[in-house]
Write a structure and sequence with these properties.
Elements (H helix, E strand, L loop, with lengths): L1 H12 L19 H14 L3 H29 L4 H27 L12 E5 H5 L8 E7 L5 H16 L4 E7 H10 L1 H8 L2 E5 L1 H16 L3 H18 L18 H15 L4 H6 L5 H25 L8 H10 L10 H30 L14 E4 L2 E4 L2 E3 L5 H4 L3 H11 L3 E2 L1 H10 L5 H4 L2 H11 L5 H11 L1 H5 L1 H4 L15 H16 L8 H8 L4 H10 L10 H16 L3 H12 L3 H8 L5 H11 L2 H16 L8 H19 L7 H15 L5 H10 L2 H6 L2 H17 L3 E8 L4 E9 L4 H11 L2 E10 L4 E10 L9 H16 L4 H8 L15 E5 L7 E8 L4 H11 L3 E10 L2 E9 L9 H15 L7 H4 L20
Helix pairs in contact: 1-2, 2-3, 2-4, 3-4, 4-6, 4-13, 7-8, 7-9, 10-11, 13-14, 13-15, 14-15, 15-18, 17-20, 17-21, 21-24, 24-26, 24-31, 25-31, 26-28, 27-28, 29-32, 30-32, 31-32, 33-36, 37-38, 37-39, 37-40, 40-41
């Protein structure tokens, strides 16, 4: 009898739009609602004291919740049921828990045998829970809906239920309102309005909920559609700005980021608000989407839900950021394996970015369709309605370009390229109807159109236009045209670069870089990049520059040197685009050597004559040099926020001028003596307040590299520092100078030279929170060392500028070099564990030794996993090998550190003996090993579940 009574109550309180038993496979294995209701009622009646009853009920609910969650997790991970089933099952379980708790609370804990109207209330699921979407670690949002104001009975019930739910470990957002209060709240607050929009009756007085829904439609939704749409789109834009306004960031937020679940939910909210639909099929019936677009919506939603569920299960928290460490594991769990040229994680992330692109396409089509149908479009969606006019075979509606006929692209495929060119040339947007037709016609872009001279002429005009080529190319890429017209580019669409240095996918990076080239050539970056802007104005081969920028990374992900492979692609594509032989040769060279300038500037001593000779021998012409400077600058700036800094600009500019001087004859490598005499003469003028004998004494101290490697202001500073140290008997002088133009702090050390000085200073600077980016080491004839380090703030980048930081840096350096502080011990204490998100990256240690890069030094390059104290460990090893470091270039690219040292042996000679070279390699490889790197055991991939449903693979195969 009790079971029958509870069944009737359960049926009474069950909402028709809740997940029903028949929609859940083997629902009884998740939770048995009738058995749970019986058990809670029995416990409430038999437990005696209220506290005992509460504890017993809590224990029973906790067991039901844990058992249900375990079963849902098992199905998801072992049977690979997918995200749709997982979120629906979570809702099903939570519904039964909340209802069982409400029933026992009202029926046994705080019973009201004859409840008054004021004591009858409803529980409503709102937010994502109301929508029927609940990820494993998501919170639940509840509205306790009252007919009038609160009373003691209802307050007791609500308080009891909330404390029980919190004690279950649930994160519960809640509100207690009457129908009137809910309507007033919805009028005043768009967030409340949205939560009520996707509400779902869960338990209790159904008539209350129906009254709320009726009044919501009549008093809130009616006539306020444009206002709601504008508010949600503004909310979306603000969210995108906060999350970095790109859907192609390499650690995306799959919920809040651009192209994520929240964007799909925004479409759902708008559709439900305007058309009172409850699913995507309703949008098809309303004519907002076509069937194919609805299918893309469903696929995107399924994929993103699946990824989010994996993310929650993997991290054990409501994590929505797809960090590097989770990407690899989730990719494995979803069945993505390594293929030629691409790892499993890269294939998984490429699928993710393609899904994000689909979400963007759907958002654009959806919103534009609403705009076209709206009787009163909101301000952000309004366009001019000055009638229709024709333009180069198209039609202009307002300020948007569209087709003259729905069959236009079928009749003339070249118009799929012309559409973007005409829009760009006339500063017009493209009508969503035309974009929708293009999407349906993409299969028409084949070999014939790709070889069509007119199509290629139009494309080259777009790429090299004086009107922002980035915007037009981005439109083409979003529409799918760019990847279809240039299949080689299509291969890098959504292609991730799996490291901590790059921020965007290859195609997104390329489009950003083209936009930066345009900004440089048009003078928009003149204040920030004056030298590069002046150089850009002198470039003659602008078409070649833009094409090279488009193609510079086009061969990434092909399993080889992308520069070499990309040059082959350029050789094939350039004539097809309409470039002549000279332009083709230039583009091919630029793609092949697009990393030459950055590698030389950041990894070699550009004060070394041999470095400049080798660089000039490869570049050959001033025009190529100009092209390479602009291309390199744009390439680095487009990598991501913070990747470009003033120091990199300074090094590139210095390399440019030294190479230009050599090409023009102004730099004579054989005229070393003249250059030395010129530097000494400039110093004499700056030291006019010194006695001649003291000037002569200092000039006699410096060897040739000292005079050739620094400018006159540096020589003057050093002379005064050395003079003061000798006069005052200071064993150690530390001087700091901020170079704001270069974005570095220059730390100059004057002390008696001794082995290991560089290493100890490197350790001291690491303790002070400084990153060394450049170092020049000099020993004067009197035995004093003058070491010059260019450093940046390790945490914030840029120079140390604040007085307190500069003072702290000087103190730590002095204490370390005086022996008060031992860097090796302090660094060992401070070394942080690898953050979880970076542990996935491995860098194979490598040591390269080059005896041809310099006439006077052996150049040693070490590559390894960046970590605190790495430079200290490496330089200690160099000191232990009895090598003298003359200069160093220190670079970090995400997780990879690349340090280059110009060294000599104890006799001041190059190292040429094979046994000595082998010992250098062996010792430095040992120094590169990170003691805190993940162990071999940690690197083993997880054992994949043997049990697999064939249908479950669909989630991983719908790219």
């Amino acid at each position: 009898m009790l079971a029958a009574a509870m069944l009737n109550m359960f049926k009474k309180h069950q909402a028709p739009d809740a997940p029903a038993d028949e929609t859940i496979a083997d629902h009884a294995a998740i939770v048995q609602p009738l058995a749970l209701a019986d058990r809670l009622t029995d416990l409430a009646r038999s437990s005696g004291a209220p506290a005992d009853a509460r504890n017993a009920i809590l224990k029973a609910l906790r067991e039901a919740l844990e058992d249900g969650r375990t079963e849902i997790r098992r199905r998801f991970l072992e049977e690979l049921t997918g995200g749709d089933a997982c979120v629906t099952e979570q809702v099903y379980l939570m519904d039964r828990i909340v209802r069982a708790l409400a029933d026992v609370t009202v029926g046994s804990i705080y019973p009201a045998p004859n409840p008054t109207v004021g004591e009858r209330f409803a529980i409503v699921a709102i937010g994502g829970y109301g929508r029927g979407e609940l990820a494993p670690q998501s919170d639940i949002d509840l509205l306790f809906l009252l007919p009038y104001k609160r009373n003691a009975q209802v307050e007791q019930v609500v308080e009891f239920m909330l404390y029980m739910l919190w004690d279950l470990g649930l994160k519960v957002g809640h509100a207690v309102r009457s129908v009137d209060e809910s309507i007033r709240g919805a009028k005043a607050d768009i967030t409340v309005r949205t939560s009520l929009l996707e509400s779902r009756a869960l338990w209790g007085e159904r008539a209350l909920y129906e009254d709320l829904r009726r009044r919501f439609v009549k008093e809130i939704a009616a006539g306020t559609g444009p206002e709601f749409v504008e508010a949600k789109l503004a909310e979306r834009d603000a969210r995108h700005d906060k999350m970095i306004d790109s859907r192609y960031v390499l650690e995306p937020n799959i919920k809040e980021g651009k192209g994520g679940l929240r964007d799909l939910q925004t479409l759902y909210w708008i559709g439900k608000y305007l058309y009172q639909v409850d699913d995507v099929e309703g949008l098809v019936r309303a004519g907002v989407l076509i069937g194919e677009e609805a299918e893309r919506f469903e696929k995107a939603q399924t994929f993103l839900r699946t990824v989010r569920c994996h993310l929650h299960y993997l991290t054990g928290r409501p994590e929505d950021r797809l960090t590097f460490d989770t990407q690899a594991e989730i990719g494995r769990r979803m069945g993505y394996t390594d293929h030629a040229g691409a790892s499993g994680v890269e294939r998984f992330m490429k699928h993710y970015f393609l899904i994000a692109k689909d979400v963007g396409d759907l958002t654009r089509i959806f919103c534009a369709t609403l705009e076209a149908e709206s009787q009163r479009a909101p301000r952000r969606m309004r366009f001019l309605t000055g009638g229709r006019k024709t333009l180069e075979g198209f039609v202009v509606e307002g300020e948007r370009l569209t087709v003259a006929d729905d069959r236009q692209f079928r009749a003339a495929q070249v118009d799929m390229i012309r559409l973007f060119q005409v829009a760009q040339a006339n500063d017009l947007d493209i009508h969503p109807h035309a974009l929708r037709l293009i999407t349906r016609s993409l299969r028409l872009i084949g070999p014939k159109l790709r070889r069509d001279p007119e199509a290629n002429r139009l494309f080259l005009e777009i790429l090299t236009s004086p009107k922002d080529p980035e915007l037009a190319l981005r439109r083409m890429n979003e529409a799918g045209v760019l990847g279809r017209f240039l299949p080689d580019f299509g291969r890098v669409v959504a292609q991730m670069q799996y490291d901590m240095y790059h921020v965007f996918t290859v195609d997104e990076h390329t489009l950003f870089a083209i936009g930066i080239v345009y900004d440089i050539l048009s003078g928009q970056l003149e204040k920030e990049l004056p030298t590069i802007t002046r150089v850009g104005r002198k470039i003659v081969s602008k078409r070649a520059l833009y094409v090279a920028m488009l193609l510079h990374d086009i061969a990434k992900g092909r399993g080889g040197d992308h520069s070499v492979l990309g040059a082959k692609v350029a050789r094939k594509l350039c004539p097809q685009m309409g470039l002549d032989d000279e332009e083709t040769e230039t583009v091919e060279w630029l793609v092949r050597w697009h990393l030459l300038m950055s590698d030389t500037a950041f990894k070699r001593d550009i004060e070394d004559d041999q470095t400049i000779r080798d660089f000039v021998a490869q570049v050959e012409s001033p025009e190529r040099l100009r092209l390479l400077l602009v291309l390199t600058t744009a390439d680095i700036r487009a990598v991501g926020p913070g990747r470009w800094n003033a120091w990199k600009g300074t090094l590139l500019n210095q390399l440019f001028y030294r190479a230009r001087d050599m090409m023009s004859g102004g730099f004579d490598g054989e005229g070393r003596e003249q250059r030395i005499r010129a530097a000494q003469a400039a110093l004499r003028e700056r030291l006019a307040d010194w006695p001649a004998a003291e000037i002569d004494a200092f000039l006699a101290m410096g060897y040739a590299p000292y005079w050739l490697s620094l400018d006159p202001p540096a020589h003057e500073r050093h002379a005064r520092l050395v003079r003061a140290a000798e006069r005052d008997g200071n064993p150690l002088t530390v001087d700091t100078r901020v170079d704001r133009e270069a974005g570095v702090t220059e730390v100059t050390l004057v002390a008696a030279d001794h082995p290991g000085l560089f290493s100890r200073l490197a350790g001291a600077l690491a303790l002070a929170g400084a990153d060394i980016v450049d170092a020049k080491i000099f020993t004067l004839a009197n035995g004093m060392a003058v070491d010059v380090f260019s450093v940046q703030d390790a945490g914030e980048g840029g120079a140390f500028e604040s007085p307190d930081k500069l003072a702290r840096l000087a103190v730590i350096v002095e204490r370390s070099l005086s022996g008060e502080v031992r860097p090796i011990a302090e660094l060992a204490k401070r070394k942080p564990a690898y953050p979880a998100r970076t542990r996935v990256f491995r860098v194979q240690p490598r040591v390269l030794i080059d005896n041809d890069a310099s006439r006077t030094h052996t150049v040693v390059e070490v590559n390894g996993r960046d970590r605190p104290g790495l430079l200290y460990d490496v330089t200690r090893a160099v000191t232990g090998l009895n090598l003298q470091i003359s200069s160093a270039k220190i670079s970090t690219y995400g997780e990879r550190a690349i340090d280059v040292f110009y060294v000599k042996d104890v006799f001041g000679l190059k190292i040429t003996h094979e046994a000595k070279l082998a010992r250098i390699r062996e010792t430095l490889l040992e120094a590169l090993v990170d003691p805190e790197a993940p162990s071999t055991a940690e690197r083993k991939p997880p054992v994949r579940p043997k049990r697999r449903r064939r249908a479950a693979r669909r989630v991983a195969e719908t790219a």
